[in-house]
Write a structure and sequence with these properties.
The chain is mainly beta and about 230 residues long. It is built from three helices and 19 strands. It has a single domain, classed as Mitochondrial biogenesis AIM24 (Double-stranded beta-helix, 4-Layer Sandwich). It has helices at about 50-60, 185-190, 210-220, and strands spanning about 1-5, 15, 25-30, 30-35, 40-45, 65-70, 75-80, 85-90, 95-100, 105-110, 110-120, 130-135, 140-145, 150-155, 160-165, 165-170, 175-180, 195-200, 200-205.
Length: about 230
């Protein structure tokens, strides 16, 4: 199996080229753009009903996922995220873990397992109670809204502060705490709110745009109908 990411950083799109029959890719519901007609597609709940509901309710992912299986060499599958932005691929090895913010997961090979991870009380302030945890062996694709900016913490930086709404993913070995950026005045008047302070050693991916900030920017320009 071979993969290629095209049209980054604005409109990321993934092409999978299957080398032999039986190779599979699992994608989020609705991610497929195009495929060879002979590729088999099955829709199911990965890990059963309990695991699927847990990912939906706690990790913000779809209950149902699509599994695409090649039936002959040379077949191709194309998939992309719903929002415009960048797609990244990460190669998971045994013993490694990747943590994803809600909605960032796009697709993975069959050896990658997904679960949700409890964040504790800090999850109430960082945008959700759970993160999606990916482990096992294989490739996993995730996406951002806007471009992706990666920082290696523990090599060039020994501590890093990231706006919680810009956090996309991070590797095992990093720990973070949710904190205010400054005092109460900064919290309510600076427009920055709460941030995540990372320490440890690993890689952090951040998105260059924030959907909530876009919604706030567009809100004054929305048309309002007057009741009559």
């Amino acid at each position: 199996m071979q993969s290629e990411i095209r049209h980054n950083p604005d409109f990321g799109l993934v092409r999978i080229h299957f080398d032999q029959p039986g190779e599979t890719i699992v994608t989020e519901s609705g991610a497929m753009v195009a495929r060879d007609s002979a590729i088999e597609m099955k829709t199911n709940m990965q890990g059963g009903l309990g695991a699927a509901l847990k990912r939906k309710m706690l990790g913000g992912e779809s209950i149902f996922q699509n599994t695409f299986t090649a039936t002959a060499p040379g077949q191709s599958l194309w998939f992309a995220p719903a929002a415009e932005g960048t797609v990244e691929v990460f190669n998971l090895q045994p013993g490694m873990e990747l943590f994803l913010q809600s909605g960032a997961y796009l697709a993975s090979t069959s050896g990658v397992m997904l679960d949700s991870k409890w964040q504790g009380s800090k999850g109430f302030f960082s945008g959700g109670l759970f993160l999606l945890r990916a482990y096992g062996q294989g490739q996993i694709w995730f996406s951002s809204y806007g471009g992706l900016h990666a920082v290696d913490i523990g090599q060039h930086y020994y501590g890093y502060v990231c706006d919680n709404s810009h956090m996309v993913a991070f590797t095992y070995g990093l720990q973070y705490n949710v904190k205010k950026l400054g005092g109460l005045k900064s919290l309510f008047l600076s427009g920055e709110g709460l941030v995540c302070e990372f320490n440890g050693q690993g890689r952090l991916w951040m998105q260059t745009r924030n959907p909530a900030s876009l919604a706030a920017f567009l809100h004054p320009f929305r048309s309002v109908s007057s009741g009559g």
